[in-house]
Amino acid sequence: MRKPQIIDRSRDLAFMQQALALAAEGAALGEVPVGAVLVQDGHVLGRGFNRPISGRDPSAHAEMVAIRAAATALDNYRLPGSTLYVTLEPCSMCAGLIVHARIARVVYGASEPKAGVVHSRGQFFTQDFLNHRVLVEGGVLAEECSALLSAFFKSRRA
């Protein structure tokens, strides 16, 4: 059994900054700017940004890319004790993956009022049928995460 996680706010900010940099990288490629970093014991195991367009893969959300990279790096599909930093509230597909991967904690930036299932459109991680509990914290660097998304969609409409 793993020891309980001690939450370090300065570490949360630093890893969310990394996720924001990845989101900007995705935006430069024309992808919706969402970035994710998966961390365990202070070490980055996986990184990703949205790439469903460039990868021609509807499942290639930032969370999915980062979790796949981490699972490959650890040679294990379970990632207990890890924290996922993501710039946007996860959708249902990603929330399901987070549970199946046994990720301990999710830290996200901006809320996703249309498809976010952590708080916005439901509270997926609190469902009784789940066999794994995920700790969640939202709103970390929310303004910066929202600003990046808003600027991206504003430029697309122009």
Percent helix range: 25-40%
Strand content: 15-25%
The neighbouring-strand order within the major sheet is: 2-1-3-4-5
**Record field, number of beta strands:** 5
Mean pLDDT: 94
Kindly describe this structure.
It contains four helices and five strands, in the order αββαβαββα. With 158 residues, it is of the alpha/beta class. It has a five-stranded mixed sheet. Helix 1 (9-28) runs parallel beside helix 4.
Summarize the structure in short:
It contains four helices and five strands; from the N terminus they run H-E-E-H-E-H-E-E-H. The protein has helices at 9-28, 62-74, 92-100, 142-157; strands spanning 35-40, 43-49, 82-88, 105-110, 135-137. Strand 3 (82-88), helix 3 and strand 4 form a beta-alpha-beta unit.
Supply the key terms.
alpha/beta; 5 strands; 158 residues; 4 helices; 37% helix; 18% strand
List the helices and strands and how they pair.
Layout: H1 9-28, E1 35-40, E2 43-49, H2 62-74, E3 82-88, H3 92-100, E4 105-110, E5 135-137, H4 142-157
Parallel strand pairs: 3-4, 4-5
Antiparallel strand pairs: 1-2, 1-3
Helix pairs in contact: 1-4
